[in-house]
Amino acid sequence: MPGTTNLRTLYDVQQLLKRFNVFVYVGKRLWDIELMALELDNLYQARVLERDVYLQAKLVLKKEHREEEKYQQER
Questions:
Q1: What is the Cα–Cα distance from 70 to 49, expressed in whole angstroms?
Q2: I need a labelling partner for 16 at 20 to 30 A (CA). Which of 5, 46, 58, 69 fits?
Q3: Residue 6 CB: number of other CB atoms within 10 A?
Q4: For the domain that residue 37 is a member of, what is the CATH number?
C-alpha cells in the first residue's frame, strides 16, 4: 500500500482507516483510540494491511493513548 508508510499522527491513522470505510467516533478520545486499535488488528488479521503499516499505526495509537491518559490524569 504505497503512501501509507508515513504515519505520524492520529489523523494519519484515521485517514488510513477511512480507506477501508472504517469511521470511528465514540465520543471520548481515549475510547476512539482503543477502538481504532481494534479495527487495525482486524484489518491486519484479515491480511488487508501490510505489517510495517500496521506496526506504524499501532505505535501512533499507543503514543496517543499514553498522552491522552496523562492529559486526563492532569485534569
A1: 30
A2: 69
A3: 8
A4: 1.10.287
**What is the amino acid identity at position 55?**
L
Q: For residue 5, which of 65, 62, 50 has the smallest C-alpha distance? A: 50
In a domain, 49, yes or no: yes
What's the CA gap between 25 and 61, in Å, rounded? 15
37 close to 58: Cβ distance less than 8 angstroms: yes
Evaluate whether residue 8 is within a structural domain. no
pLDDT tens, the chain, 75 aa long: 444 469 999 999 999 999 999 999 999 999 999 999 999 999 999 999 999 999 999 999 999 999 999 999 998
